[in-house]
Amino acid sequence: MENEKQNKKLKILCLHGFRTSGAIIQKEVEKWPQPLLQKLDLVFMDGPYPAQGKSGVDGIFEPPFYEWFQSDEEYKEFYNFEECLAKIEKFMLTHGPFDGILGFSQVYSVPRFLQVVLCSLLCYYCFFLSN
Asked: What is the model's pTM?
């Protein structure tokens, strides 16, 4: 039993950045050191909404590109935000349990998102990275 705990991989939900995709974050994370990757069970999710504008990675990576939610240009008004949280929660309940979440860019930028995820009982650790 003790040996099973030591060999258990951490199951991490990986949430991509603004107007990218699960496939893109997967390609980026695969560059991490193999000894680290061997300890992780990484699960990649696409944002629920097709990108509504040009992606900053267009021409570097192949589409499709996704968004988690939409906003006005000043990031003061958010649209489809609650629906996004519900879709992430449903994904976590369906594919979990997760030991942690790794989030980039758009999912990192909104305090409400952090509050919901950090206060959730659906995972133990959250890692948010921004470029």
From this structure: 0.79
